[in-house]
Amino acid sequence: MPLRVYNTMSRTLENFQPAHGNRVNMFVCGPTVYDHSHIGHARTYLAYDIIARYLRAQGFSLFFLMNITDIDDKIINRARSINRDPLVLADEFTRDFFQDMKALGISSVNLYVKASEHIPEIIGQITTLIKKGFAYQVDGDVYFDVTQFASYGELSHQNVDQLVEHRIDPDPRKKNVIDFALWKSQKPGEPAWDSPWGKGRPGWHIEDTAITTNYLGPSYDIHGGGLDLIFPHHEAEIAQAEAATGTKPLVKYWLHSGLLMVEGARMGKSMGNYIIIKEALRNHDAETLRLYFAMSHYRSLLDYQEAHIAQAEEVLEKIRSAYNKFRTLRNNSGVNGSVEPEVQGLTERAKREFDEAMNDDFNTPRALAAMISFVKGTEHLRGVGQSSIVEILATLDYFGDVFGILRKETMGSDDSFDKVLDLFLTIRDDARKRNDWATSDKIRNSLAEMGIAIEDTAIGARWYFSAKSRKESSR
Q1: Tell me: the pLDDT tens digits for 212-221?
Q2: Buried b (16+ CB within 10 A) or exposed e, 7-24
Q3: What confidence tier does 263 reach under pLDDT thresholds 50, 70, 90?
């Protein structure tokens, strides 16, 4: 079964075919860093972390880009309320966000980029839009003229007449009430940069398209984000980028994760149910949270409930118990030989069901069911040989790596196998620092032949078991 994804643009499931063969470029809207990240952020970024992990496990060469919105009205207003410098405040919460991502085990992002570090690209894209007649200047402000972009509203499936009620950036000087800001003139106490239109700062939407077209080009494979970003943010991204570059589509597959409720209500500080990631991690193991969120499809509305998290914790403990049992058997068993037919059938069926589920728009609840069924199927096994034990562990490692559970730091592993692999990564990293690419490639290729892939992330290299690598190496 080929991988199919639900495309918000077409509102249908589509076969996933990257524009450049095996290479996939993916962008996910990052946080606006004016406060601590909350569990709604965790739900979104964990969903795309699992998607990224699965794409890589299936052999795709994925470049995963995420932006950090560190210039925005929310940041300025928060800084003003507590008498802080907006850029300093944003930098503090950016570092706080990175700590949360690390604590949650989110390691699949290749590159994080800040809006404040891409002002020249932003100014360049705005200049292009003005020259092409898609934007206009009003004093020190610049707006995008929505009426000049015929397909505006295509992603949210609304026409311009329906959008009039959305008074974006209220300003009587605008040509149309739904025109949105590309550049905002400086107001007292706000951060500002020099531009052809005077000192000011970028609008929210232009930050993302200036970044993505710079790193990914005028068209790329996947754009992800929360459901609440479809309009106006993602709609504006399409208009800006396609108008500036003349290339359509900006994005081949639009993916959107569902919203999060807390105990049946919308999360909010005024509601008393606002839960930041740090608080959730004080009460629950990170892998428990990962499994809990994976128990619901990424596009579904999720109601965050403590009782359901307890269920996820029970499931995780059963999976960990099985993993530890076979790890102990591997270390203590001297019996070798080939994989027993019963074990071979069990692992092949589990992998097939798991991949079929993930290929159905990353259906993690079904994939998790396949993993649980596999664990139950191993409970009655007795006296299996070393090869069968290794096969069972490799299967659990594959499932665990996609979900981001059974990580060695959480399993208390002192396994020499892990240590040897970490040593190989250290040697490879040293080779790369010396520009010794031949040694680096040799290590990568040798590990790939053993079914072990290397992923270079924003926080360093890591290894994981790849079903795709094992299949190719056995041919």
Answers
A1: 999 999 999 9
A2: bbbeeeeeebebeeeeeb
A3: confident
Give the number of other CB atoms < 10 A from CB of residue 458: 15
The pLDDT-based confidence of 332 (bands split at 50, 70, 90) is: low
Residue 222 has pLDDT above 90, yes or no: yes
Pairing assessment for the beta strands 23-28 and 220-226 based on DSSP bridges:
parallel
Task: Using a cut of 0.90, tell me whether the model's pTM lies above it.
Answer: no
Would the pLDDT of 471 be above 50?
no
Cα–Cα dist 197/342, whole Å: 72
Between helices 386-403 and 306-332, what is the axis angle to 10°?
A: 150
The secondary element (H helix, E strand) that includes residue 31 is none
C-alpha 403 chain-centroid distance: 13
Question: What would the pLDDT profile of 93-110 be if each residue is shown by its tens digit?
Answer: 999 999 999 999 999 999
Distance, CA of 336 to chain centre: 40
Q: Is the pLDDT confidence value at 474 over 50?
A: no
Cα radius of gyration (the chain): 24
Main-chain dihedrals φ then ψ at residue 274, nearest 5 degrees = -85, 115
Position 241 scores a pLDDT of 98
Q: Which two tokens mark 49?
A: 């972390």
Phi-psi group of 165: left, alpha or beta (phi > 0 → left; psi -120 to 50 → alpha; rest → beta): alpha
Q: Which residue has the tokens 């139950």?
A: 376
Q: What long-range pairs does 413-418 form, CB within 8 A, spacing at least 24?
A: 413/327, 415/327, 415/331
Any residues with CB less than 8 A from the CB of 402 and at least 6 apart, and which? 50, 53, 54, 57, 354, 358, 367
pLDDT digits (tens, 9 = 90+) for 385-405: 888 999 999 999 999 999 999
Kindly report, residue by residue over 20-36, the tens digit of the pLDDT: 999 999 999 999 999 99
- Domain 4-283 homologous superfamily, CATH: HUPs (3.40.50.620)
Task: Tell me which residue has tokens 């995420």.
Answer: 66
Sketch the domain layout of the chain as residue ranges.
4-283, 414-475
Q: What is the DSSP letter of 259?
A: P
Where does residue 412 rank: exposed (0-12), middle (13-18), buried (19+ CB within 10 A)?
exposed
Q: 3-state DSSP call for residue 256?
A: strand
Helices marked H in 143-234 — which ranges? 160-163, 204-216
d(C-alpha 316, C-alpha 329), whole Å: 20
Residue 375 CA to residue 381 CA, distance in Å, equals 11
- Terminal Cα distance for the chain, rounded: 20
How crowded is residue 296: how many other Cβ atoms within 10 Å of its Cβ?
A: 18
Say if CB 243 and CB 210 are below 8 A apart.
Answer: no
- Kindly report the CA angle at 71 between 70 and 72, in degrees rounded to 5? 115
Bridge partners of 135, per DSSP, are 144
